Predict the 3D structure of the following.
Amino acid sequence: MSNFMNHPYHLVDKSPWPLLSAFSVMSLVTGLAKWFHTFNVSLVAFSLFATTLIMIQWWRDVVREGTYQGLHTIQVGVGLRWGMILFITSEVLFFMSFFWAFFHSSLAPAVELGSSWPPAGIKPFNPFQIPLLNTAILLASGVTVTWSHHALMQNNYTQGLQGLVATVFLGLYFTSLQALEYYEAPFSIADAVYGSTFFVATGFHGLHVIIGTAFLLVCLIRHMFNHFSSTHHFGFEAAAWYWHFVDVVWLFLFISIYWWGN
Amino acid sequence: MASFVCRSVFAATRRGVSTTAVRAADKAMNDPLEHATGLEKREILAKQAGREDPYEMQVYKRVAGTKEKPNLVPSVAEHRVVGCVCEEDATSINWMWLYKGEPKRCECGYWFKLIDSKPV
């Protein structure tokens, strides 16, 4: 409580995480380049570990500031909402670039590919097998996360928990099925531009599913620690928005790459 | 398999036994006001108490603003920046520091005076 200020904004205490995370992600991308050129994975492995630790501590501090110190006023919530929305928008644009690349190569297939899409010799996945199941899984997970949210808003702890558990389970189920698909795939990332577009687009999507599942898992744990009230649970809402975004990207992937591209 | 399932279902209903699963009552979460803490809680309490502008950040309409009856500017500190929109279609705001005990006159003629206020 200050005698000099009376405003709803959160002027954050000094924190080492912004600078340290900048160094660790710089080291991460440098390590990636080193891995690609020298096949030495040490730098990227260490940087991934460091980045993970820093992320955990930074977000732990955000939870402390919001839940335990009560610094997340309505106005701060508005800022957090803008932040999450703008971040998701940037991710939409990120995926747009991969869809652009896919359509660039597939709409007018080069003569080197046999002037066909899929290219000659490539045996794509049957979209109505595992990919369709994955679509059903993600759509169902959208339902379960919405169920969880409504339960939270209606002050129902138990069903809020059940919905989150179901959503996390479905997310893990999707990831394992996709991993199985990757293992069993008859083509690789090196198989012409088909392989590149397929694995880069679905690969980044899979990474986002893992991130979204982790975010939801954190919400699950926080819910078990009673961090959420029926009116204030923005962490959950942000996770749900992110999860819906991941679902929508999959729908586009399914329709264009798996189905139309077959 | 399907016919076996159907037979079992019809057998149970023919018995006329009503079986309902006994579910424990769903646990509830804390009351949002009880759950809140710190500034967030004080903000909720202030709004509930009827203090519509707890941070005193809204735009106030100027009153007469003479030297005898200046515009009263609430502040939790000994000083506060106040901005005067001199006329309705002014293209800039005239910002000035206001100090406790020193009423000040904007160039356009309106007077301002600091008064005490409590933070949220």
Q: What stands out?
A: The beta strands of chain B are 71-75, 79-84, 94-99, 104-105, 111-116. Chain B touches chain A through 24 residues (CB under 8 Å).
